[in-house]
Write a structure and sequence with these properties.
117 residues, mainly beta, four-stranded antiparallel beta sheet
């Protein structure tokens, strides 16, 4: 089992930046691919980005491509999401999750990101 705890959310003005962290404990962090998702009020949870176990392969949703960067530090058991040029539509609760064979199994509790216009 893996426990995931997100942090780094907050209130930021449009155009600003935030860096989210996802600290993992339990089974070996490096054995999992990882992903970030977000959920805006009244909307379904949506994919944001994912990263392979080694960190060499990354995918992004079109809506964040060029603005967000996913990364990981396996020595620190931590996943990151650097978010630049934030827009009000980026507002939501951001979740990290483990990924194995296209299945996201373990999820964190989420961290709130609010972007004001």
């Amino acid at each position: 089992q893996v426990q995931l705890v997100e942090s780094g959310g907050g209130l930021v003005q449009a155009g600003g930046s935030l860096r989210l962290s996802c600290a993992a404990s339990g089974r070996a962090f490096s054995s999992y691919g990882m992903g970030w998702f977000r959920q805006a009020p009244g909307k379904e949870r949506e994919f944001v980005a994912r990263i392979s176990r080694s960190g060499s392969i990354k995918y992004y949703a079109d809506s964040v491509k060029g603005r967000f960067t996913i990364s990981r530090d396996n020595a620190k058991n931590t996943l990151y999401l650097r978010m630049n040029s934030l827009k009000p539509e980026d507002t939501g609760v951001y979740y990290c999750a483990t990924r194995v064979d296209s299945t996201y199994e373990y999820w964190g509790q989420g961290t709130q990101v609010t972007v004001s216009s």
